[in-house]
Amino acid sequence: MGSDLRETLSEYRRCGRAILATNFYNAETLLAVLRAACALGSPVILQTSPSTIEYLGLKVAVGLARAGRDELGVQAWLHLDHARDVGMVRRCIEAGYDSVMIDASDKDFETNVRLTREVMALAQGRGVLVEAELGYIPKLGEREAQQFEMTSPEQAERFVRETGVDLLAVAIGNAHGFYKQTPQLDLERLRAIGERVDAFLVLHGASGIPDEQWREAVRRGIVKVNFATEIKDTFMAGLRTAVQQSDSIDIRQVFPPAMQAVTELVKQKMRLCLGQEALPPAAK
User: 20 to 30 Å CA-CA from 211: which of 94, 177, 179, 197?
Assistant: First the structure.
């Protein structure tokens, strides 16, 4: 549907925009995201983590994403998020994913390079883009463990040169999950990285990043923004409320309010990626 992912990322980088990359976990969260993209006419990257693939099954995850995209007429691509196992990456490439991430950011530099090269070889000739992470973006529950390791512009240049990776997730003060304190992104570091590498730059851990920092990160070269935690939180909050207010056993009645809440949330974040101001509540 439309131009391929590399072309769209290149176009968005030229225009100072980013594509929102949202994780989905079931049909409901998938449709909620796609409805937001449809409403704004925005492209979207649909992400599955290995745990979601384990939950849904690979064929079901791919089938849901493709069917939802086609049903709503949205320009969307399917991405494997945070795979640690090359075997999982291989399965997703063979299943038709548009892009895959190999996350060896907790390994030493040489191992990260080696595993990224291995995945690049698997993707070669298939039109599949490869994402890697350099530096270390803390996972859930790791903030107290002093796991932060910022991406070095010099190492980023070397890493991209030695791997040829298409997308690079950078550590600039961001973290996965919710933040206990307001994050302060190192935007000067981001600018310096962008001046040294040709790879598309990715911001992980967007849930909880203030709007202006989000916008400025896009202005300074971020072209893909990963967004997941707030989707789960918003969906579950809406679902709890709907269940408490209903005696129905029909799940088709309790899911829609939660889905609508996610749709509105994702529309707001897409506007940040597109450089648009949020609409007032009455206009949403």
Answer: 197
